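Please fill in the sequence for the structure shown.

STRUCTURE ENCODING:
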């Protein structure tokens, strides 16, 4: 019995792939092969027979039609019992069917993405594998296969090239250049199997997945209601869409003018917030320079470094609070930061003054010491000279 099972195992490995040797190379590396998912579970047929005609009879499916791929994958991936040992969700097929991709496929559109477009066919790899198209760093390029394809862009009149825009963003630089795997790629904002563009009113919720405190502050602001009235997608109204730039205090100079004239009260209020921040940053920067100077002398600066970090923290906290547009809240944090910077400077300038006094005192001390030595030496010579004259 064991011999028969062993022989059957090797038969499955050999007979299906004797003719399909090119596929065998891909399949051998796949997660399906590693987990014992055999050819017949997708393609049917009889793997125990080396006769092509007999092997391809009865339930043999052959090449799976594109529109049938999601339902085929769901036979396993929608089974909670099969997915449970791998801690994988079993609702992904349902999400896909309710996504724009799935809905268009059900209407007969074969241009939309199906499972194999994102995960591969016979070479399906775990999404944790850096070689997988679904690996977090590879997702932008995988999505770009369709969304940046020239023919599809022309056919469906795509308004932009999201991949090109994304690659210029702070998100892409953080993920792909600095290796921060917490930075979002396409699925981080649009979802994976249920991929869809965030609707109006939902953008702040999507951005809030990562920027939770910023979202809380934004919801307190006058911008929230104003942007709802004009049906604007909240965060992206100021920070752009796929090509999100590094947030910078100087955005108050440019972005605000998209809605507010430079002589308006709203624009001037933004400039006041900017001024408060820059004044605090200036004092923190001055304190940092003095600490570096003190450390070279050397003066013990551990306590000053700790206080400087506290001041920087207040300044960092002030940035998302600016989304409230509330002057008193921003002032509270920037004032604390500014005060710490000023206190450090005052104390270090005091220590520098003390050192100068000590240095001057030391100079006078050595001057009088040397002068005393010289006078004693001259007096001693004078006594010796007198004694010699008396002896003569």
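FILLED IN BY: designer on duty
SEQUENCE:
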């Amino acid at each position: 019995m064991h011999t028969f099972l062993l022989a059957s195992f090797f038969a499955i490995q050999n007979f299906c792939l004797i003719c399909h040797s090119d596929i065998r190379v891909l399949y051998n590396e796949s997660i399906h092969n590693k987990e014992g998912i055999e050819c017949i579970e997708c393609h049917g047929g009889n793997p125990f027979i080396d006769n092509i005609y007999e092997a391809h009879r009865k339930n043999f499916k052959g090449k799976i039609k594109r529109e049938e791929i999601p339902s085929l994958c769901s036979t396993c991936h929608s089974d909670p019992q099969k997915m449970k040992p791998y801690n994988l969700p079993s609702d992904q097929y349902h999400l896909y069917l309710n996504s724009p991709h799935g809905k268009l496929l059900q209407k007969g559109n074969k241009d939309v993405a199906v499972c194999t477009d994102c995960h591969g066919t016979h070479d399906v790899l775990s999404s944790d594998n850096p070689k997988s198209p679904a690996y977090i760093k590879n997702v932008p390029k995988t999505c770009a296969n369709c969304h940046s394809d020239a023919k599809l862009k022309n056919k469906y009149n795509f308004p932009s090239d999201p991949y090109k825009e994304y690659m210029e963003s702070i998100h892409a630089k953080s993920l792909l250049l600095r290796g921060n795997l917490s930075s979002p790629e396409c699925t981080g904002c649009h979802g994976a199997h249920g991929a869809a563009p965030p609707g109006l009113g939902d953008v702040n919720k999507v951005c809030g997945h990562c920027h939770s405190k910023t979202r809380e502050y934004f919801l307190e602001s006058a911008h929230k209601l104003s942007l709802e009235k004009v049906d604007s997608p909240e965060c992206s109204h100021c920070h752009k869409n796929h090509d999100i730039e590094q947030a910078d205090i100087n955005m108050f100079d440019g972005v605000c003018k998209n809605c507010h004239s430079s002589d308006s009260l709203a624009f001037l209020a933004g400039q006041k917030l900017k001024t408060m921040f820059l004044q605090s940053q200036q004092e923190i920067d001055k304190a940092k320079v003095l600490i570096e100077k003190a450390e070279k002398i050397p003066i013990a600066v551990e306590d000053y470094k700790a206080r400087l970090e506290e001041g920087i923290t207040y300044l960092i906290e002030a940035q998302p609070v600016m989304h409230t547009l509330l002057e008193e809240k921003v002032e509270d944090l920037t004032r604390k930061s500014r005060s710490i910077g000023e206190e450090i400077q005052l104390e270090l300038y005091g220590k520098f003054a003390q050192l100068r006094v000590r240095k001057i005192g030391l100079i006078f001390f050595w001057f009088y010491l040397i002068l005393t030595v010289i006078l004693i030496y001259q007096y001693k010579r004078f006594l010796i000279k007198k004694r010699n004259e008396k002896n003569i």
